[in-house]
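FAQ

Q: What does a record look like?
A: Structure on top, sequence underneath. For example:
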């Protein structure tokens, strides 16, 4: 009954798509894509790759020695699995790491608080800072606050994040990560605290990158776990004057090496289908769902295609490129380096997609194609539909690391995952391998393998015949 329901929804939505003028996927390619789905569902390769990365490397903070070991791991893994043209394309990034973080309510209810510094934050003085808390229910409330009256205070932005399947609540909630520190600094506050940008009720604070505006005094900022934010909120309900002590020690020693690890499955032409995930992670967990899963899914899909080629002797028409992007978490450095490195070849990039939303099952196929090319997407969805994947809209992001090439006109696809619990784990100590279901990641591998095989062998491309700003516009 579940498959019948999916098919009914799919057929109904398909009526809104352009009528199919021809078959762009040959019967042979369609059958091969279906075979890839069947074999991928029976394979554990995606899970095995994530298990290897998170066990043999662990946390992989961008620019760290661990991220360097992850690049070495990536090269070895690509070669072990049979990929060709394996290489590291290096670049440098400004390095930041935490050394120490602690906080407590000093009065009137003395007790420890669980915090984590946000990436890029400055530290406090060695003795920390101790000041009265001023709570704001939302970031907008802080933005609307007078420019005086917060001098010497610690600002607390207590804004909640909405849990959604597609992760759309994150875009609103994440603004406080930089906004709280910048608004606090403008008003003379000595530090800022935020309720974690996440949906977990466990006592795990969520880290993440923040940035200071130019010409704004830099104040230290940390995230409270949700239970600790609740505790601080209750303390303020009982007493208008709550004092908190906060200490953060960080290191920012300058530029450090990072890099993209790249490998290919050679096609008959120099046109490229590019997929990938990001290799770096935050330092609190082992980076399993963010984004070891994306690496496992896309590398696993490539491995399934390599095995298919070995069995059939049929190479794809286009080259398939798999990228383990470096330094995504701290500012999409790897994505930008890739876009610069291949700026003269982006017209040969037929389509791109990144897996960077955990390991939940894919349920929707979103595109950013020329409007006159949506019939090609419709053909792909017909093949993916038995996996429980239906058609989505035509404003796909493609994933964070696809952003720089999407903005230069490369069509992209988002194979949208179920992210209902993603922000329970994202950027926390709870981001570990046990949160990944091998069956769910196999469904992802199956979807990516089939999509990539179809894209690499489909007639024509996905760009509009006439200039189409929807490919690049936000």
């Amino acid at each position: 009954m579940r498959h019948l329901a999916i098919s009914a929804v799919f057929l109904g939505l398909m009526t809104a798509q352009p009528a199919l003028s021809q078959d762009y996927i040959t019967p042979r390619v369609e059958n091969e894509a279906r075979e890839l789905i069947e074999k991928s569902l029976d394979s554990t390769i995606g899970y095995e790759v994530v298990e290897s990365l998170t066990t043999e490397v662990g946390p992989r903070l961008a620019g760290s020695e661990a991220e360097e070991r992850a690049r070495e791991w990536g090269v070895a893994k690509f070669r072990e699995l049979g990929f060709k043209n394996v290489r590291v394309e290096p670049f440098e990034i400004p390095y930041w790491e935490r050394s120490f973080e602690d906080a407590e309510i000093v009065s009137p209810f003395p007790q420890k608080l669980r915090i984590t510094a946000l990436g890029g934050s400055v530290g406090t003085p060695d003795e920390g800072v101790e000041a009265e808390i001023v709570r704001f229910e939302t970031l907008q409330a802080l933005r609307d606050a007078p420019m005086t009256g917060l001098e010497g205070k610690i600002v607390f932005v207590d804004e909640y994040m909405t849990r959604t399947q597609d992760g759309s609540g994150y875009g609103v909630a994440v603004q406080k990560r930089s906004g709280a520190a910048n608004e606090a600094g403008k008003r003379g506050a000595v530090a800022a605290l935020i309720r974690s940008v996440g949906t977990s009720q466990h006592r795990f604070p969520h880290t993440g990158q923040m940035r200071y505006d130019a010409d704004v005094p830099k104040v230290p900022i940390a995230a409270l776990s949700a239970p600790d934010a609740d505790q601080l909120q209750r303390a303020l309900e009982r007493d208008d004057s709550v004092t908190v002590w906060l200490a953060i020690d960080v290191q920012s020693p300058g530029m450090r090496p990072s890099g993209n690890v790249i490998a290919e499955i050679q096609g008959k032409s120099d046109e490229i289908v590019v997929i990938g995930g990001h290799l770096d992670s935050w330092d609190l967990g082992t980076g399993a769902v963010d984004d070891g899963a994306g690496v496992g899914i896309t590398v696993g899909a490539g491995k399934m295609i390599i095995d298919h080629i070995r069995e059939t002797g049929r190479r794809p028409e286009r080259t398939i490129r798999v990228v383990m992007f470096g330094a995504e978490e701290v500012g999409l450095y790897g994505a930008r380096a890739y876009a610069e490195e291949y700026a003269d070849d982006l017209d040969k990039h037929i389509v791109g997609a990144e897996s960077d939303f955990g390991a939940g099952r894919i349920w929707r196929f979103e595109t950013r194609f020329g409007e006159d090319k949506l019939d090609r997407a419709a053909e792909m969805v017909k093949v993916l539909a038995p996996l429980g994947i239906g058609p989505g809209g035509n404003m796909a992001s493609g994933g964070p690391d696809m952003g720089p090439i999407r903005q230069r006109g490369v069509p992209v696809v988002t194979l949208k995952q179920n992210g209902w619990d993603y922000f329970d784990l994202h950027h926390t100590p709870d981001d570990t391998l046990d949160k990944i279901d091998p069956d769910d990641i196999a469904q992802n591998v199956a979807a990516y393998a089939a999509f990539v095989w179809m894209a690499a062998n489909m007639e024509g491309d996905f760009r509009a015949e006439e200039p189409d700003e929807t490919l690049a516009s936000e």
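Q: Is there anything notable about this one?
A: The CA atoms of residues 2 and 388 lie 9 Å apart.
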